[in-house]
Specification:
The structure is a single chain. The protein has about 1150 residues and is mainly β. The chain has 1 helix and 109 strands. Strands 42, 43, 44, 45, 46, 47, 57, 58, 59 and 60 form a 10-stranded mixed sheet that branches. Strands 61, 62, 63, 64, 65, 66, 67, 68, 69 and 70 form a 10-stranded mixed sheet that branches. It starts with a strand and ends in a 16-residue tail after the last strand. This is IPT/TIG domain-containing protein. InterPro entries: Cupredoxin, Fibrocystin, Ig-like_fold, Ig_E-set, IPT_dom. Keywords: Signal.
Length: about 1150
Amino acid sequence: MPTVIKENNVYNIELMSSNCGNNFPKFQIGSAQSTTATVIQDKTASTPVGGSFHLTFKGSSKVVNTAMTAKELKNLIEINFPDAGVVSVEREGNCANFNYTVTFLTRPGKQPKLQIRDMGLEVSDTGGLTGSNVSVSLVVLEHGRLMYQPITGDLLRTSHDKPQVAVNINGIPSICSGDCKFEWTQASTPTVTAISPTTEQHTSYPESVTITGTGFSSTLADNKVMMGTSSESECTVTAASSTSITCNLGRGSLGQHKVDVIIKDKGRAKHPTSGDVKFEFISGINSVAPSTVGLGGGVTLTLSGYGFHDNALVTIGGASCTIISITDQLVKCTLPPNTAGMKSVTLTQNGITLNAPTQVNYDASVTVKISSISPASTAVEGNIIYIGWRGEEGVDNIGGGTLVIQGSGFGSNGTLKIGDIEVATTTFGDTEVRAELPPLPPGNHQIKLFISPNGYAVLSSTNQLAEIEVILKLQNVFPRLGSVLGGTRLTLTGEGFTTNKNLIEVKVGEHICNVETAIQTQIVCLIEYTGKTHEINNTGRHYEFGESHAWNILKANVKVGDRVRWSWQYPTFVSGIAIRIEQTADESSTTYIGNGGFRSGTTGVKNGQYTHTFTRVGTYHYWSGFANDIGSLILRGIIEVEPWTSSIQNVTLKVAGYEATYVTNSGVADPTDNSNCPGVTKTCTDPNLTGNSNGRFSFSFLNCTTPNVTSINPRNGTTETSIHISGYNFHTTNCNNEITVDNALISVTDSNTTSLTCNVNPSTSLSIGVSHPVSIRINNYGYAVLDILGDINRTFGLKPMVSSLSPAAGSLGGKTSVTLTGSGFEGTMADSSVLIGGFPCEITSLTYTQIVCKTPSSVSTGVKIVQFTVKSISAEMCQNCNFEYKADVTPVISSVTPVTLTGENTELTITGTYLEQQGGGISGTSVKVGGESCYVTSTSPTEVICNITTVPCGTQKVELWVTGKGKATSGGSNDQITSQSIISSVTPSTGSIHGGTILQIDGNGFKQGQTTVTVGGKACNIEDLNLAQIKCKTPSNSAGTFNIAVSVQNCLNYPSKSFQYTMADTPVVSSINPQQASSGTSVTISGDKFSANSIDNKVMIGDITCAITSAGTNSLQCTLGAKVAGTYPIIVEVMGKGLSNSHVTFTYSMTATAVSPNSEVKYV
């Protein structure tokens, strides 16, 4: 609403603009009675502030748009300036005059000042501030602080007239709850006046000294005496009084040391003003042994004496003697090899050199001699059970081999070392020693064959220790440059390699080069993809919602080609959470950026994972969507993608864990690629190359050699679709451009340096309906950068397609076997569907490139459309992939003779037209009657003859198929035949009145599941049935003759037969002995009409079989099975007769055979 004030015929009108409206037109006078009316505008509406400015914190800058809300600026600061922590932002004012108030919430204390730079004051592509006389400034309203209320005690101090003892724990002073003063007084100070003796005597061990003075303690443990600074220089107190301490000397270092005495509760003793009381440690060598050794050394030299220390060094004839052990009075060391003659022995410690009183004689006459060793050189891996550098286990016995040492005087035993590695010998003889070579580092290693007592054997030709050379030399690496993303195939040439790839480790810098082939002189490996995977998860802390509600990394710095893998997980008790990863335009946007952006899905999930590869330099913002039910939780982050920097990286080679020696000046030529598709290299330089080779073989990861892909089109198609890939640094030879779709290599059909054409090979069996990632490697530049935004734009999806259909025509009766050829036919037959004219074609077989089905029947001739779907995906059909029903290829049945079957072998004659396959032959025609095969014996176009026996009873259809044509049709009942209901015999004709007799009924047409048998109106339970025979078990009945009735559904009645129940065929059980027993007992059953053949009898006591051991017509013996105690009926079944009576019973008794435990322990 305007404000109007009238004063002295002047109207003052004030308008408040809405939504920062401005530049309004001035009021005009439309018409007036007075000609002196005027309009004066003394103020205009303020121009809104627009544009942007730079906000900087701790050296990082970000552009702020003046239209940002407080929430948007909060997101910008927290994500782009992680060191700022969580902040709150408030915006106040209007569009022409406003301010933001930023408060640091989680970074206590004084923070660095935010810096503002007006972009309008300098040249910038992003614009500057706009408006009327716009200025921007920053004012610190309040510095951060830490409030103490009240002030804690550790920040306060009190005054004292005497020194106080203060204790600090983790830098925090503790409180003194009592008297904490401390004073230094003469009365409390011990003194040392003398020590006796003043020098080591070495007359006994341990040596004892006496210290005199004042203020000592008579309690031994309260006195501590040190003569030097090491722990071994302490003198162990053995006696003490207030004026005297006696102690046993430790192993003090040579020379004079102050006698340091410390008394408990008093402190360190004071020495005379005339000078410190001191004690001197001395040393000396008394003897050395042995006096004579062989030239090879290896013998243990023992020095006897006194005052030896752990830092002692021994030399003999100027050569170092390797220390084995040192005590105060003995030094033992291993003698080195030396030339013949007398050698002086010296010991040096603490700057003092001692000479031994005697020398050691290196005597050639006592030296064991080696005449030869074989081999003179070997590879590093030896014979080992290995665990490869990737963790693979196995056995390798390629390198190394057997070391053979020949000579004389070896004796029958000794030890062997190669270098410092002990090696077990396999044979040891006076003239020959054998051992399996272990893994060894490259270089020359001494053969140390120790023969007691004179030491290591030497070569007879040199009088020196024999050596074996272990070879592992890298002499050439080719090529030496390639893609920054890896994928270059390297050939390493040298000596001493292995054929066991599991023992080889090749790295280029930190990147693994995966070994593809290896021989003794050459290794071929492929540098792995060098892009890193950066892990981001929801273990960060949200200022409001707490743990697990923020990303652990808010701003990740990655390089082109790197992957970022997000993962998030919440406990089961947390509900209402759904997170997705979705690229946005900026820190505050809540909408997907659209095509080209990355996205895990359109909806969120509680627990999930998503990976995206970044292939273009830039800043990428993302959010989680509204992560909780009420939309108050959002997880945000930024990915900063930086370009790859070309670099030089060293090539390292290890075999069996040992690193090779690098011979960079070997002169070995680059290898020649003689394969069908030799790789190519590209020579270029990069002025920004970093790193250096440090005298090693090196590899340059260069941007200028890196292939780059800018587009893939189309993104879906069939195996016949040409895929076009654009970019640069491709190769003109098709085979050198390796394109994979989901790791399946596809065929390149055309190529130049900027364009590739390819198609998916059906042999890859690539899954259909899936967007598969595409990757490209140029042989031998390396892996390409896919400089394409959006996951989906770097993929190719395969669709099924049918390229041909055969045959194209068939019978109106259907059942023509049609083969569809193409690609993408994956899954099972249940996953696929073929329709011909809208009706299902029954699938009989399926592969990835071929499907066979049997056509449905048709009521009319003509061409029918064929449709094919795989996993609900419609296949692309070839132009002529239709099927035609034709009368001239339709077999027709005119007549069948005879028209009845009895179950006997019958020859059928079928007449008609087109009854034979093209080219003739009985194998192309098949016949079934009522589903049963009629075996064809002859065919012609108009007649088929076949043989058949039993067929289900009733009227049955005759079906005929011809290969290449399909199923035959017929007119009316021309294809029908009657199978008669016949019973030819029933055996046996008599049986037990208790039932159980197995009846065998022979005849024709019996149907499984549709046949019933009764004897005297009672069911005879069928136990087995086929078209020609029934076996059933009779029910019980009284003695007499009864009708047998057989009934089959949908068939004429079978003729009636009879069965007689007789006492003569009824087994009788009269008694059992014993009448009561437990399992495992043998019992005798007496009665009548049993079988004398044991296998024809079966005894059941209850539901448990009693195993028969002997049988007679009146008696059976059997062994009881396991059964719960109780009384049970006895039934005997006799084959050919049936069941016995069941009124005789037997009682199973319960028997305890043992009790465990059989004693009890009582606790009282």
